[in-house]
Amino acid sequence: MVSLVRKNLYFLIITFVYFLPRIINLTKIPIFSFYDRQALMESAISSVGIWSFYYFSKLYENLKIRYAIIIGIIFGIGFFIKSSTLIYITTFLIISVFLISKIKNKKKALKCIPTSIIVIVVVNFLLIIQPDFWRTVTTNNRYVFTFFELLTFPLSTWVNNFFGNLSIIFFFATPFIPLICIFSVYSIVVSLKRFGKFTFILIFFTIIIPSVLTFYQIFNPVLYFTDMYKITKYTETNYIYGQTSGYLSLIAIDYLNGISKNKKINIGVAENSGNPESAIIVYFRNNKNVFVGYFDKKQFNGNLDEIDCIKSDRPLYFVSRDEQLVGLDKYLYKIKTIYNPYDSKTSVGIYRLKEKCSGRMIQLEMINT
Description:
Number of strands: 8
Helix content: 55-70%
Radius of gyration: 28 Å
Strand content: 5-15%
Structural class: alpha/beta
């Protein structure tokens, strides 16, 4: 009975620590107010781990098939979201094999594993029958070790990843969440009664302190990122200092908005991902006076060597990273340089297409973004 109470209390503590900050306080924790917006799948995968743990415990308490089905549904949804759910599935299989050896009703227990696997396959049936899925699934080795790479036991990578993730949890999910988890485990081991005395402190550290840090992030993001960089290398200072900083993009957009207010223009960008190109494409998507297209030497199929002039039906402005003109240097001239206010080494250039030129000419056909 004591073991059962402790197990349920442990689950309640995990639920409290993990879900309450997300439900009640979702926008008041730094990692959720900013970073999690760019990797929403990770939250769902974490939830898969917690709920599968809960129903796994229920399954081996009474060996009911319905719990095996629920586990299969949870894992199936998790795999549909992101294939890293395989980590949880593999762990489930290994622990199940170990526990079956200690359970008296082995025949009933053995039915649970294939039941869960079948449900996982059923949930992902539409995904599995897609040819594109099998063509792309092998590209995961860019982010994870293959089975044979794991057999080499890459300990140095594991250690680096462990401390990296620990740093992220400590500084961006706020240090209080891992500390509370440690405290919770201690409370369970030492005494069930002691945990109740610190409930108020638990709420304080999961709501008030994270809120302060998040307001700091919202109202002074520059100081937040620069200060965090002094503490941990995993803060993303490229949002401020890097070439793709949004500060540069916004100034360029304001400048081009002023030009296009009373006339129609073309804006050319290189075929790059990230800012300023992505920002230019998104901000001007619904602007009737602006057509944004890719403008790159590659689109001319190597025929530019014999061309002296490029003609456009509208005034053409090209937005570049620093002075990267993608092979079009002789056709453009700079009209403005926008420097990063926090990093003088990076800039965005705005160029015009040369109009006064003589020689062989070609009509520009912009490629829609």
